[in-house]
Amino acid sequence: MPELPEVETVRRTLEPKLAGLKFTAVQILMPKVIKTPDPDQFKEIILDKKIIKINRRGKYLLLHLSEKYTLLVHLRMTGRLTYSEKEAPVAKHTHVIFTLSNGCQLRFCDTRQFGRLWMVPVPSLEELAGFKDLGVEPLDDRFTRDYLKKELRRRHARIKPLLLDQTFIAGLGNIYTDEALHRARINPERLCTTLTPREIAHLYHAIQEVLQEGIENRGTTVRDFIDGNGRAGGYQELLRVYSREGEPCPHCNRPIVRKKVGGRSSYYCPFCQKI
DNA sequence: CTTCCTCCCTGTTCGC
DNA sequence: TGCGAACAGGGAGGAA
């Protein structure tokens, strides 16, 4: 499940390989993964464009191309974007193969077919549904304790579904949300308006801490995630609650439970994270 | 306006 | 042991 730290890891592994290269060919094996434009136009636009740099916004990767175009990639659940030799065997569920000017390839692969690609002229980014309404970047200076406090006062949701709302904060997913709530000792079902200033402060720091640690450990590989070079992450070893149902809470030793909150599996310690 | 639920998809795990 | 059902989940879109 690529969340902010995983997408950032892909960005960091791909940028040094791709910057300066041009696209010389594209094979679209699964047309539906390209949201815009249609496959023929997509090919026409991308051919001969140069990759200038790669950015990240929330869980989106942005490949900035020459002539003011951006190729956006969202990996959703099982998407993979990898750099490889063109002789390397093509993995099952590979949907798009980009050939580069150095003879190597960039491949988009996605078992569950939820991931999507968009090719847009830079000015159209501001109109792109899903992208234009993204909330604050949690590792940016604009994400302040005060911002969090004010927003939590304004909303009327349970804290976990709210943290997963990309229009609120961009980049958190199920793993890092559960980890942040555990560190802040906040139950995922708590109404956001009931958090005390002290809890809000803890949550603010916990969000930044888990994301930072996730990036430092090159992301979390619970099942599918690999970086741009095909390498798994390392943060799964350091998870305190996520996917650890029945294991002892690292703080109180009581068993971690799993419960659906807002339709998503949530892992937490009922003793440390009381309602 | 808001929040919450369903659906998309395949591989894996669960239960009979 | 075999097989169908349930589950996993990010986000679009629709319901309430």
From TrEMBL:
Q: Does the keyword Metal-binding apply?
A: yes
Formamidopyrimidine-DNA glycosylase catalytic domain residues: 2-115
EC no.? 3.2.2.23, 4.2.99.18
Annotated DNA binding sites: H93, R112, R155
Its UniProt entry gives the catalysed reaction(s) as: Hydrolysis of DNA containing ring-opened 7-methylguanine residues, releasing 2,6-diamino-4-hydroxy-5-(N-methyl)formamidopyrimidine; 2'-deoxyribonucleotide-(2'-deoxyribose 5'-phosphate)-2'-deoxyribonucleotide-DNA = a 3'-end 2'-deoxyribonucleotide-(2,3-dehydro-2,3-deoxyribose 5'-phosphate)-DNA + a 5'-end 5'-phospho-2'-deoxyribonucleoside-DNA + H(+)
Task: Give the cofactor note text.
Answer: Binds 1 zinc ion per subunit.
Task: Outline the extent of the FPG-type domain.
Answer: 240-274
GO biological process annotations for this chain's record?
base-excision repair
Catalytic residues at: P2 (schiff-base intermediate with dna), E3 (proton donor), K59 (proton donor), R264 (proton donor)
Gene3D superfamilies hit by this protein: 1.10.8.50, MutM-like, N-terminal (3.20.190.10)
List, separated by semicolons, the cofactors it needs.
Zn(2+)
A GO molecular function assigned to this protein is: 8-oxo-7,8-dihydroguanine DNA N-glycosylase activity
Q: Is DNA repair tagged as a keyword? A: yes
Entry keywords, A to Z: DNA damage, DNA repair, DNA-binding, Glycosidase, Hydrolase, Lyase, Metal-binding, Multifunctional enzyme, Zinc, Zinc-finger
Q: Which InterPro entries match?
A: DNA_glyclase_Znf_dom_DNA_BS, FPG_cat, FPG_Glyclase, FPG_N, H2TH_FPG, Ribosomal_uS13-like_H2TH, Znf_DNA_glyclase/AP_lyase, Znf_FPG/IleRS
Q: Which PANTHER family match?
A: FORMAMIDOPYRIMIDINE-DNA GLYCOSYLASE
Q: What is the annotated quaternary arrangement, including any partners?
A: Monomer.
Q: Which family does it belong to?
A: Belongs to the FPG family.
User: What is the role of this chain?
Assistant: Involved in base excision repair of DNA damaged by oxidation or by mutagenic agents. Acts as DNA glycosylase that recognizes and removes damaged bases. Has a preference for oxidized purines, such as 7,8-dihydro-8-oxoguanine (8-oxoG). Has AP (apurinic/apyrimidinic) lyase activity and introduces nicks in the DNA strand. Cleaves the DNA backbone by beta-delta elimination to generate a single-strand break at the site of the removed base with both 3'- and 5'-phosphates.
What protein is this chain from? Formamidopyrimidine-DNA glycosylase
Q: What organism, scientifically named, is this protein from?
A: Pelotomaculum schinkii
Underlying gene:
mutM_2
